[in-house]
Design brief:
It contains 20 helices and seven strands. With about 425 residues, it is an alpha/beta fold. The protein has a five-stranded parallel β-sheet, sandwiched between helices. Strands 6-7 form a two-stranded parallel sheet. Helix 16 runs antiparallel to helix 17. The longest helix has 20 residues.
């Protein structure tokens, strides 16, 4: 069976790799390291189809090392031991480069079996992962490696690979390909930064195109059929999921409704309702909060409606809630206040509850001194009585600061009003 087109036109030099200029450009650290011929253990982190395997192959060839490739989804300790057993052979005289794809699937014992050999230099490790290595690769491997992040390839760069792939297919099929204007660009835009996916689309378009008068016409309709939402990069348990959620939250916090709607659309297009629902409820409390407390029940109503409706109609209340929060006044005073209070508690700053605040609704409470001097505030001016509520150890501690929005300033004004009223009309016995 013929290898896929993506393998048949795999670049032979770093100059031929599309994208990743931040790693492979003339002044980039990785490029300079490879050109010098001296490489260290590395971890390539990034999405699929962006050149990680290709770059590893080129590095092995340029540095004269014997390349061994394992995949973490199927490799075991036995496979690693087999590579180790050949380290003293003639084949390994130039050094061994082990390319370990999807390293996150190897357990701790499997990863640790490499430590001795990557430490003494007998094996140079290039591991790749689509997951964040700081979460999925063990520290012992991380500390001995340099992490290089591969990014989705820009459409303009992918278009170059698409044109080259169509040229390759034309030669192999020995039939001219007639591309409708915009076909190469449409494939480049529709692959979500994945070069391999774009080349696979080229191969499918070329092979499925009917021969008419000795030529193969390829139109935009064919591209649309093979693309089918392939621009979406989304894994509900992966980094992309959390990156999109983070961008969604920060866009709402930053009052940019257009960006927030974009990220909401990406979540909903992947069929994810629960994540934006939970995040919107959090935003309403964390970032709008006391500046406009009514936002919380309104967003709750929108979320309930979305969950009852399901997709595609759920997009409507969720879009309303998103725009509402983006355009609402912002305050994180409540979040900062509770975080400051919890920080004290976690540091052990608690203290005993004052006796007059303790529960006194039981027989014998008075004998224990519970509730004896507590003053019920409602009969006093402004329904206020200035007694100490915090434990003695935290007396005078301030967690909440009124912020400069209309609602909190109104609350601050009311607080000043009742304090002034107390000073003016306090009972004589005080």
């Amino acid at each position: 069976m013929a290898a896929p087109l993506a393998d048949r036109i795999r670049p032979e030099s770093l100059d031929d790799v599309v994208g990743q200029r931040h790693l492979l450009g003339p002044d980039a650290v990785l490029r300079r390291m490879v050109d010098s011929g001296h490489i260290t253990n590395m971890i390539f982190y990034g999405p699929s189809g962006v050149g990680k395997t290709t770059v590893a192959r080129i590095i092995a060839r340029q540095t004269g090392k014997t390349l061994h490739k394992l995949n973490g989804t199927s490799a075991g300790v036995a496979d690693i031991k087999q590579i180790i057993s050949g380290l003293d052979t003639f084949e390994a005289m130039g050094g061994v480069l082990l390319y370990l794809d999807e390293i996150q699937y190897l357990n701790k014992k499997q990863q640790q079996s490499l430590l001795e050999f990557i430490e003494n230099g007998q094996i140079t490790l290039i591991a790749s992962t689509t997951e964040n290595p700081y979460f999925y690769v063990y520290n012992a491997i991380l500390s001995r490696s340099t992490v290089f992040e591969f990014k989705p390839v820009e459409a303009a760069d992918i278009e170059q690979a698409v044109v080259r792939a169509f040229g390759k297919m034309e030669k192999e099929l020995d039939t001219p390909l007639d591309l409708e204007e915009g076909v190469a660009q449409a494939i480049a835009l529709g692959c979500g930064g994945d070069v391999r996916k774009s080349i696979n689309a080229v191969e499918m378009c070329a092979l499925s195109a009917p021969v008419k008068e000795g030529r193969r016409p390829i139109g935009l309709d064919a591209v649309e059929q093979v693309s089918q939402r392939s621009a979406m990069r989304y894994d509900r348990d992966g980094d992309v999921h959390y990156d999109i959620l983070s961008a969604f939250h920060k866009s709402v916090r930053g009052s940019d409704e257009n960006a927030a709607l974009h990220y909401l659309a990406r979540l909903l297009s992947a069929g994810d309702i629960l994540s934006p629902c939970r995040r919107l409820l959090c935003i309403a409390c964390e970032d709008i909060g006391l500046a406009w407390p009514q936002a919380i029940p309104i967003v709750k109503a929108c979320v309930d409606s979305a969950l009852q409706l399901g997709l595609p109609e759920a997009r409507l209340p969720l879009a309303d809630a998103t725009i509402l929060l983006c355009t609402a006044p912002k305050s994180n005073a409540g979040a900062m206040a509770i975080d400051a209070a919890m920080a004290d508690v976690q540091k052990g700053k608690t203290g005993d509850v004052p006796d007059y605040l303790k529960d006194s609704h039981y027989s014998g409470a008075k004998k224990l001194g519970r509730g004896l001097t507590y003053r019920y505030p409602h009969p006093y001016p402004g329904h206020y009585y200035p007694q100490q509520y915090l434990p003695d150890e935290l007396k005078g501690r301030v967690y909440y600061q009124f912020q400069d929005n209309k609602t909190e300033q109104a609350a601050a004004a009311y607080r000043r009003q009742i304090l002034a009223l107390w000073e003016k009309e306090r009972p004589k016995e005080e």
